[in-house]
Amino acid sequence: MIEFSNYDILRNLMFATQWTILLSLAAFIGGTTVALTLTAMRLTRNPAMQRIVRVYVELFQGTPLLMQMFLCFFGLSMLGYEISAWGAAILSLTLFTSAFLVEIWRGCIDTLPKGQWEASRCLGLSFLQTLRHIILPQAIRVATAPTVGFSVQVIKGTALASVIGFVELTKVGTMLNNATFEPFKIFTLVALIYFMLCYPLSLYSKHLEKKFNVSR
Amino acid sequence: MSLVNLHQVHKYYGDNHVLKGIDLDIKAGEVVSIIGKSGSGKSTLLRCINGLEQYQEGGITVDGKEVTTEDIQVRRLALSVGMIFQNFNLFPHMTVGENVMLAPTIVLKKSKAEAETTARAMLEKVGLADKFDSFPEKLSGGQQQRVAIARALAMSPKVLLCDEITSALDPELVGEVLKVLEQLAKEGITLVLVTHEMNFARDVGSRVVFMHQGKVWEQGDSKTLLSNPQTDELKQFIGAVL
Amino acid sequence: MLYFSDLLQYSDVFLSGLKTTVELTVLTTILGVVLGTVCATVRQYGNRASQRVVSVYVELIRNTPFIVQLFFIFFGLPAIGMMLSPWEASMIALTINLGAYSTEIIRAGLASISKGQIEAAKVLGLNFRQTLTRVIFVPAFEKIYPALTSQCIIVMLGSAVISQISVQDLTYAANLVQSRNFRAFESYFVTALLYLGLSILLRFAFNALGKRLFAYRASN
């Protein structure tokens, strides 16, 4: 058995943290992109489009992220699409993230008074012009705080990628645990690292929310 | 014998000296109207009498017992002092009847049947017997305030404090609430009201206390004082509100 | 090709997994909301020190992944002498997790109750406990009921992770079945649908319960 010094443990965890951060970023960027597309579909006011978005949200909010990951990883390869753990993790986290973001943003857009749309119509602005100049600038201001807040959920969600074998922080934690038999120490450290990643984002989200409420 | 007695009461909010040595003596059966500009300390004075606000110097007694903000003391006080608020503060999740029965059952430990009899009698008194099973949000502001009065009366208080109880009402609803108060005054209930209703203060009240800059500036029999104010400040105030 | 019919012979496995998931969900929903209510009350009305303790608990849980919390409780605590079965560890982890989120949610509800309501109770002679239970809780919970029940459903879905410490829940059943018949897609797909059904069912149940709890809104 190899002896692990505290330094070795920390070094390994730090190395793994890079993958957690990378996976979080990829999922967040992917999720935002898909959520933007879905939001656009919703705003078209086309009933079919809106129904698609509703079903999408229902599906990915109503099932466990872990199950989505299993389906992406084991399921897709069963169907003949070979996918790496990394690919399956990004894909499922993107689906998960976008389903929540599109709902969060819907709430933000809905808080804008209906009069804004009507007033723009009266001024002769087209749908896209209204969106671009009137709705989006306001919606982005409202949406920033909850979006930053949700990024914490994304980071925590990446921990599930360990289950399908992707080597990130939680996976390295369990591996180190198996090698050192010091679960208390290892999982405390793992938890602390997640906390250091997430807590600043939580604080920033709260700060943004306060700032926004004051300026209103 | 004095029912409510204030002796040299001082109250500060931080550096702000709100009450500057209030002396006031209220006897059983009196109807005392406290008038004055906003910021003169009249609401604060009322809230000191039932222990909702702490005062820093002096002493207040109600029915011979000292008033403090200590929780247990406030609750004992609740047995002799009733209070009605500007914003009614009915409990939205209880029916009118449940609102009135709440304190008698859980504070006075009355039986449900006994509390219900009292509650119905009190609601009858304020003219809302038929609303026993309604929820507050279904009532008009005037009706809600009358329920609040019934709720306070159900505890058979020795004195009823009214904090601008008609100020949040639409003008056409003020009358029905004042009529109830007038009825109570006739029955001999001791009332202390912070109010802007000068006509009510003159016609129903027995005494008017004019507060200015945290002091009792002038007081006396309501009809005499309001028709013949002594100080410039009261003259000005009466001129402004009438 | 997909062969869903192959799963039929395993319906017992799925059902027993479903039962475990439902049992744990019901139990931890109740315990978690009770814990959250106590913590929220302390957070809103307690003294400075106890408020601080609750804040630390809430922030620690909300900013770490559930799976790490679960591993810490199941693997970490025995190392310092607290032996727990997988089922016990899961129950504790889920309760603590929901407790932290519901603390934040319920506190927002408590904060929404106007000072006037509390003063009205005070001048009627109600003590603090009576004011809380009779005057504050019902309107406060009504305010945050949708947020609270959504969180309960999120925690139910998150419970899929407890299969990783071999609690025989619905996800465990899915893993077991796919390891036997190698029909991973079918097995996980059906399980995902079962979870979806469960979350829809829970939402219905919560709505029905809400209608009963807050009946005063709809009546006369």
Automatic annotation (TrEMBL), chain A:
InterPro entries assigned: AA_ABC_transptr_permease_3TM, ArtM/GltK/GlnP/TcyL/YhdX-like, MetI-like, MetI-like_sf
Primary location recorded for the protein, binned into one broad class: membrane
ABC transmembrane type-1 domain mapped to chain residues: 17-205
A Gene Ontology cellular-component term: ATP-binding cassette (ABC) transporter complex
Molecular function terms from GO: transmembrane transporter activity
Alphabetical UniProt keywords: Amino-acid transport, Cell membrane, Membrane, Transmembrane, Transmembrane helix, Transport
Compartment annotation: Cell inner membrane; Cell membrane
Membrane topology: Multi-pass membrane protein
Superkingdom per UniProt: Bacteria
Any single Pfam family the record assigns to this protein: BPD_transp_1
Stretches that traverse the bilayer: 20-43, 55-77, 83-105, 142-166, 186-204
Gene Ontology BP terms: amino acid transport
Keyword Membrane: yes
NCBIfam families hit by this protein: HEQRo_perm_3TM
Assigned protein family: Belongs to the binding-protein-dependent transport system permease family. HisMQ subfamily.
Full protein name: Amino acid ABC transporter membrane protein 2 (PAAT family)
Automatic annotation (TrEMBL), chain B:
GO cellular component, one term: plasma membrane
UniProt entry keywords in alphabetical sequence: Amino-acid transport, ATP-binding, Cell membrane, Membrane, Nucleotide-binding, Transport
Membrane topology: Peripheral membrane protein
Chief location category: membrane
Pfam families: ABC_tran (PF00005)
Ranges of residues in domain ABC transporter: 4-238
InterPro entries attached to this UniProt entry: AAA+_ATPase (IPR003593), ABC_ATPase_HisP-typ (IPR030679), ABC_transporter-like_ATP-bd (IPR003439), ABC_transporter-like_CS (IPR017871), MetN_ABC_transporter-like (IPR050086), P-loop_NTPase (IPR027417)
Organism encoding this protein: Marinomonas rhizomae
Entry annotated with the keyword Disulfide bond: no
Similarity remark: Belongs to the ABC transporter superfamily.
Protein name from the UniProt record: Amino acid ABC transporter ATP-binding protein (PAAT family)
Subcellular location: Cell inner membrane
Gene Ontology MF, one: ATP binding
Automatic annotation (TrEMBL), chain C:
Cellular component GO terms held in the UniProt record: ATP-binding cassette (ABC) transporter complex
Domain of life of the organism encoding this protein: Bacteria
Topological type in the membrane: Multi-pass membrane protein
Positions of transmembrane segments: 24-46, 66-84, 144-167, 187-206
One Pfam short name: BPD_transp_1
GO MF annotation terms: transmembrane transporter activity
Keywords recorded for this protein, A-Z: Amino-acid transport, Cell membrane, Membrane, Transmembrane, Transmembrane helix, Transport
PROSITE patterns linked to this entry: ABC_TM1
UniProt domain ABC transmembrane type-1: residue ranges: 18-206
Cross-referenced InterPro entries: AA_ABC_transptr_permease_3TM, ArtM/GltK/GlnP/TcyL/YhdX-like, MetI-like, MetI-like_sf
Cell compartment(s), UniProt: Cell inner membrane; Cell membrane
Keyword Transmembrane helix among UniProt keywords: yes
Gene Ontology biological-process entries: amino acid transport
Protein family per UniProt: Belongs to the binding-protein-dependent transport system permease family. HisMQ subfamily.
Protein name: Amino acid ABC transporter membrane protein 1 (PAAT family)
Taxonomic source organism: Marinomonas rhizomae
